Amino acid sequence: MMNSATRKVAAITGASSGIGSVNADRFAARGYDLILVARRGERLAALSGQLSALYGVEVGVISADLTKEADLVRVAGSLGASSALRVLVNNAGNSRLAPLAETSAAESASMIALNVAALTRLTEAVLPSFLSQKDGLIINIASVLSLHALPVSAVYSGTKGYVLNFSRGLQQEFAGTGVRLQVVLPGTTATELWDLSGIPLALLNKAKVMSAEDMVDAALAGLDNHEDVTLPSVGDPSLWDAYDAARSKLFLATQTGNPHRVTPGPDDSGWSPKRPQ
Predict the structure, then answer these.
(1) Domain CATH code at residue 246
(2) 219 in a domain, yes or no?
(3) How far is CA 274 from each of CA 127, 260, 268, 277, rounded to the nearest angstrom?
């Protein structure tokens, strides 16, 4: 796709709009050649021309649906074969925000295929080169719904919870290897994903919606500040520190062979922790 011996390359999935296209612009501005991946080839072609003209970078495009095995294998092969690749932005994702009973099996499978399986496979594809060269950056786009679930987000929150835990595990694996991984947890961001999810963007409280440009710029500021986990809409980093410390404390408390019993109530056997209210 590209033959660049001196320039570094950044690959961005879901690059045809929103967070992906803004990331493409920002990495081009930083001097990276690009590999842009998305379903909509005509949009990729237009973006490719714009970025090449504006920044003087080389831009390759791959039109692919990452929920399809053949396309995923093709993209993974291309990225894995690129010795100049130094950055992978796993941005592609989809969402259906509805109760599970109103979500088709195909819709759930699509979220899992794109948000979980494709992200994992592409990470696996680039990792051998990154590790052998002791140089590489992976940015995984998760969500604040990695930390929370709504009555309409069970599957989506589940997939984004995977992205967060997958990323945190890899960060420990990569210690001392020269490979970095940042996981980004955007809040409500103005992208086309909302209209596709079943909850139109126009119905959301505008005061709580961040532009894709502001989200990406805040995420890259976090990257430059060496953050492992970036929440672009959270201004007080001590909130994450407190959350992460509480999570670690809770995990450590589980490391015992002694069962915990609660005092039995009139409707409680006593074996389970307090039920959610």
Answers:
(1) 3.40.50.720
(2) yes
(3) 42, 11, 9, 9
Q: DSSP secondary-structure letter at 155? A: H
Domain membership of residue 112 as a residue range: 9-253
Does residue 92 fall inside a structural domain?
yes
The set of residues, in sequence order, having a beta carbon less than 8 Å from that of 76 and lying 6+ positions away, is: 121, 122, 124, 125
Beta carbons of 12 and 34 less than 8 angstroms apart: yes
Task: Give catalytic residues, as residue numbers.
Answer: 156
One-letter identity of residue 201: L
Q: How many domains does the chain have?
A: 1
Which residue has tokens 């494709």? 118
Least Cα distance to 113 among 100, 122, 126 occurs for 122
The overall pTM is greater than 0.85: yes
The DSSP output letter for 85 is E
Token readout for 25 is 């612009």
Say what angle helices 69-80 and 119-133 make with each other, to 10 degrees.
10
DSSP 111: H
pLDDT digits (tens, 9 = 90+) for 251-267: 999 999 999 876 666 66
* Residues sharing a CB contact under 8 Å with residue 109, sequence separation 6 or more, in sequence order: none
Cβ(121)–Cβ(138) below 8 Å: no
Contact, 170 vs 130, CB < 8 A?
no
Low-confidence ranges of the chain (pLDDT < 70): 1-6, 194-195, 197-198, 262-277
What is the CB neighbour count within 10 angstroms for residue 236? 9
